[in-house]
């Protein structure tokens, strides 16, 4: 057997806080062989990033290695002096962080940043280093590497930046690459490309990789082995296929149940959220960390300290930290029963030919005197669709496709350039929210993406929800308002004790629940939810998503769900509208859109969804290039520049016809529907 | 569903929150010194009547050195000035002037600056253009020149000093508030307030201003310090409160020609100004530390 590259032996990592020394990681052991790809999954707060920082010796001024040993190539890391550690970090161990745009220096050209690495670590000359930078960018499959080398980071897209960051990490030929949520900040199509790239790199450079992510799909698609972390401990480890197909630990099982099956919707196979929330370091229970949230918890067994990672009898490499793994195996909690689909009501709003152009500010004197032609960002171009009461309609597309702009026009935060938005019969497309009537304002409410920004930090939860009730004249009496607020908090499953708390005491999921309660408080006809789940952990996503559906049914509301996560969309929405560059490419019932005939763009989007479920196979499709600049959209079909199924010049010259397949399924493409119907489905389930 | 009982916890009172703040400040030695210095002068100002051994404007023995005993067993602890007025008593009574006009002027400057800054930052467009240009014009004058022009035009009096200080400091405050507003107006909770049809006034007052308070409170503490210096400088230039009422800056001005021979007349008022300004600056530092830690 070869020597392991990295060995962690019962590692304990702690932070010194105001409450004293708090253990964030308690007793993690694993080893990485050269060239191996290992995944570390778990929710926020389980200690996975701390492990990565611990390996690099980057814990900061208040972090300490409080037990165990860390060996890299047989050398004890804690024995190294800071200078040696620094040399090691750049050359032998490299790290890729979550947000690529924050890693690159915004005031330095890309080639300079790349060339720095070999110049520092290998003492290469400037020209040689520049040469190396160019070569590695080509190996990263960056389109137009010459331009990228001369560019500043802000001129690149998120995907390109992440490729540059990965290139930078690989420049010194590290034997270990640590990737902390490498694709979380990226679009799903870009995500798929980066995943593909990582697999390729692993093979070519024989670099060992440690993937850290909360995305089980990503880990399933990239890694050989996986470790599931919970409350600072590894609770299950083994081969990826093994762990995901036969999860033994109740936590792993719970996580898998939180992710919607990519081929079923909310009525057929509802997800089952894990109850409770992850304990803070320092508040972790004795014994099994997952005990308080576990269905199979048994007193006297699960609350004993010192639970070992024990082998299961099926496979030597698979181990699980659960006292009752053999018993809980079949004691699966009852999955929620399938529900009858909700009946849709009358039409609640209709969008006709909506157009939204933003003028590009041009401060030059020439434009001041009207000598230049004003240029526009075409955020929305001719959008048509309608939605009914009790219906969930999803708008999907990559970032920059104009889906958020569309939401803002609906809510009156922006006004349309042309076209109509009819809410309850009247056109409000050109009416800003300040000029809308009280009923029109009350009929459209929004839920926003970022849980940390959605609530006013200075006001109590109760006041923020209550304000909606007073504002829309639902209630005037103070005590009645408080009562109604408390009921709304029950409905979104928030404890009533939080009513006088300020938002900073709440977790991300709780904040999003408050935001949802606030949006539904005025009983609007339409709620626009802009990426309401994207910033949340997997298990929280499941819980909040389910609650959102419950409250929608109860209030008979139309829900417009804006998302780039097709897995969630498949699960939550009844109808889907696929947007690209401000235009609708495909629309129809969810089942129709997720099955052939597909628009080639939809097909690529579906293929980009990372799938963790065992037995689901998917076809790989990779989209070249990036979303074009919406100020200069391609002529003809907007998608022709990236389309893998382009049929010829007609795509570049003529706008595609709107083709109908069935009653409500529309595809905007030059390829005849009959031909698109012959396409093999992207996802297939082995059963 | 039967009506579940609703627990209504009373909100923490203002007193309790002030107490919480002082507990927080206790951990910072800088803040403790700042609070003690400011607290000392506030105490002196409030109890001036009891603390001052003499009438501030009564003339006794001119040019008495510190510690000189006077008839009736009383002592000129800090000596007397050229007109025979007790320096200590004048400093004690002078603290009233400074601790009345400086916070008042700062507060009013903040009222104007916050209103202008919120409107400029939230409304933007021509509101911003007009308000920002006005503030640019005011800020382009050297402050001292501005003070001299204003006071010379409208005359030296307590009210006029406040007017001059508000006029000169409000643009700077407006800049800060405008900058904070530009950032805060893009938050999702402001968008949420707009989608429920809140008025601009409500959004500026409830959604934006309370969230800008951290930096503003720190700045206000620093600014009170500057205003104290300004009042001192105005007094020194003879543009302060008209004599004979005690005013620290005025005391320095009246006695500076004799400072080489009778330093006590000048040095003690100087120390009074410095200690009070220092107190406010340290308090600001402490508050900043506290806000960073949260």
Q: How would you portray this structure in words?
A:
The complex is a heterodimer of chains A (687) and B (294). Chain A has 687 residues and is α/β, with parallel strands linked by helices. Chain A contains 24 helices and 26 strands. Chain A is globular. Chain B has helices at 14-26, 29-46, 48-51, 87-123, 125-140, 143-154, 158-184, 188-195, 200-208, 213-236, 248-255, 264-293; strands at residues 68-69, 75-76. In chain B, strands 1-2 form a two-stranded antiparallel sheet. Mean pLDDT of chain B is 81; it is low at 1-10. At the A-B interface, helix 15, strand 18, helix 16, helix 17 and helix 18 of A face helix 8 and helix 9 of B.
Descriptive labels:
heterodimer; A: 687 residues; alpha/beta; 8-stranded mixed sheet; 26 strands; 23% strand; B: 294 residues; mainly alpha; two-stranded antiparallel ribbon; 2 strands; 70% helix; 1% strand; disordered N terminus
């Amino acid at each position: 057997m070869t020597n392991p590259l990295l060995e962690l032996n019962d590692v304990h990592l702690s932070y010194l806080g105001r409450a004293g020394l708090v253990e964030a990681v308690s007793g993690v052991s694993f080893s990485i062989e050269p060239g191996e790809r290992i995944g570390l999954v778990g929710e926020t707060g389980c200690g996975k990033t701390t492990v990565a920082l611990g390996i690099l010796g980057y814990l900061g001024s208040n972090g300490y290695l409080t037990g165990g040993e860390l060996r890299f190539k047989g050398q004890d890391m804690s024995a190294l002096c800071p200078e040696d550690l620094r040399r090691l970090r750049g050359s032998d161990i490299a790290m890729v962080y979550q947000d690529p745009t924050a890693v690159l220096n915004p005031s330095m050209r890309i080639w300079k940043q790349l060339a720095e690495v070999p110049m520092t670590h290998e003492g290469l000359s400037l020209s040689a280093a520049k040469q190396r930078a160019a070569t590695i960018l080509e190996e990263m499959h960056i389109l137009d590497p010459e331009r990228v080398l001369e560019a500043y980071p802000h001129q690149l897209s998120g995907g390109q930046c992440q490729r540059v960051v990965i290139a930078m990490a690989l420049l010194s030929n590290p034997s270990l690459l640590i990737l902390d949520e490498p694709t979380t900040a990226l679009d799903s199509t870009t995500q798929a490309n980066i995943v593909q790239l990582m697999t390729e790199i692993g093979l070519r450079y024989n670099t060992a990789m440690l993937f850290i992510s909360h995305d089980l799909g990503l880990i399933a698609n990239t890694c050989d082995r996986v470790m599931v972390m919970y409350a600072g401990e590894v609770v299950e480890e083994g081969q990826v296929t093994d762990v995901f197909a036969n999860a033994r630990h109740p936590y792993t099982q719970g996580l898998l149940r939180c992710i919607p099956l990519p081929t079923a919707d909310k009525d057929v196979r509802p997800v089952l959220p894990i109850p409770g929330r992850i304990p803070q370091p320092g508040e972790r229970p004795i014994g099994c960390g997952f005990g308080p949230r576990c269905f199979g918890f048994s007193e006297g067994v699960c609350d004993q300290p010192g639970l070992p990672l024990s082998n299961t009898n099926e496979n030597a490499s698979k181990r699980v930290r659960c006292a009752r793994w053999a018993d809980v195996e079949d004691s699966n909690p009852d999955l929620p029963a399938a529900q009858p689909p909700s009946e849709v009501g009358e039409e609640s709003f209709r969008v006709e030919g909506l157009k939204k152009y933003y003028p590009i500010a041009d401060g030059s004197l020439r434009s001041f005197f009207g000598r230049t032609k004003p240029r526009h960002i075409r955020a929305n171009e001719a959008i048509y669709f309608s939605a009914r009461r009790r219906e969930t309609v999803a708008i999907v597309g990559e970032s920059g496709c104009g889906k958020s702009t569309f939401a803002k026009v609906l809510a009156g935060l922006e006004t349309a350039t042309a076209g109509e938005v009819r809410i309850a019969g009247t056109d409000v497309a050109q009416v800003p929210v300040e000029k809308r009537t009280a009923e029109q304002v009350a009929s459209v409410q929004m839920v926003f993406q970022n849980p940390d920004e959605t609530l006013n930090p200075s006001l109590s939860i109760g006041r923020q929800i209550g304000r909606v009730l007073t504002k829309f004249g639902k209630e005037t009496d103070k005590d009645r308002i408080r009562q109604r607020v408390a009921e709304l908090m029950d409905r979104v499953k928030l404890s009533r004790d939080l009513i006088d708390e300020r938002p900073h005491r709440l977790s991300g999921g709780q904040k999003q629940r408050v935001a949802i309660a606030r949006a539904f408080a005025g009983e609007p006809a339409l709620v626009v939810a802009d990426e309401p789940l994207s910033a949340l952990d997997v298990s929280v996503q499941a819980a909040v998503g389910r609650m959102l559906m419950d409250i929608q049914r109860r209030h008979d509301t139309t829900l417009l769900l804006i998302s780039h996560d097709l897995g969630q969309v498949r699960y939550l929405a009844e109808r889907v509208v696929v947007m690209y560059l401000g235009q609708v490419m495909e629309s129809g019932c969810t089942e129709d859109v997720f099955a052939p005939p597909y628009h080639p763009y939809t097909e690529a989007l579906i293929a980009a969804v990372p799938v963790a479920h065992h037995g689901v196979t998917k076809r790989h499709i990779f989209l070249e290039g990036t979303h074009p600049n919406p100020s200069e959209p391609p002529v003809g079909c907007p998608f022709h520049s990236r389309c893998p199924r382009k049929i010829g010049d007609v795509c570049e010259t003529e706008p595609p016809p709107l083709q109908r397949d069935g009653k409500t399924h529309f595809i905007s493409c030059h390829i005849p529907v009959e031909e698109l119907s012959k396409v093999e489905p992207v996802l297939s389930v082995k059963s | 569903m039967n009506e579940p009982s609703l627990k209504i916890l009373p909100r923490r009172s203002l007193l309790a929150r002030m107490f919480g703040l002082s507990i927080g400040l206790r951990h910072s030695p800088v803040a403790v010194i700042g609070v003690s210095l400011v607290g000392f002068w506030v105490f002196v100002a409030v109890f001036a009547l009891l603390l001052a051994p003499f009438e501030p404007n009564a003339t006794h023995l001119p040019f008495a050195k510190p510690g000189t005993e006077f008839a009736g067993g009383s002592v000129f602890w800090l000596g007397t000035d050229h007109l025979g007025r007790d320096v200590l008593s004048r400093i004690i009574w002078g603290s009233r002037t400074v601790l009345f006009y400086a916070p008042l002027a700062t507060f009013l400057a903040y009222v104007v600056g916050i209103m202008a800054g919120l409107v400029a930052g939230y409304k933007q467009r021509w509101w911003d253009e007009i308000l920002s240009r006005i503030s640019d014009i005011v800020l382009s004058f050297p402050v001292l020149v501005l003070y001299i022009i204003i006071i010379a035009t409208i005359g030296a009096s307590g009210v006029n000093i406040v007017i001059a200080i508000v006029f000169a400091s409000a643009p700077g405050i407006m800049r800060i508030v405008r900058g904070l507003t530009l950032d805060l107006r893009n938050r999702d909770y402001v968008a949420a307030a707009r989608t429920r049809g809140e008025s601009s006034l409500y959004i500026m007052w409830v959604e934006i201003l309370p969230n800008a308070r951290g930096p503003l409170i720190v700045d206000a503490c620093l600014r009170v310090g500057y205003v104290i210096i300004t009042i001192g400088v105005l007094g020194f230039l003879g543009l302060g409160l008209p004599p004979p009422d005690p005013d620290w800056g005025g005391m320095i001005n009246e006695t500076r020609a004799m400072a080489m021979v009778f330093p006590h007349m000048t040095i003690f008022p100087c120390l009074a100004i410095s200690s009070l300004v220092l107190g406010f600056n340290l308090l600001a530092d402490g508050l900043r530390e506290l806000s960073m830690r949260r």
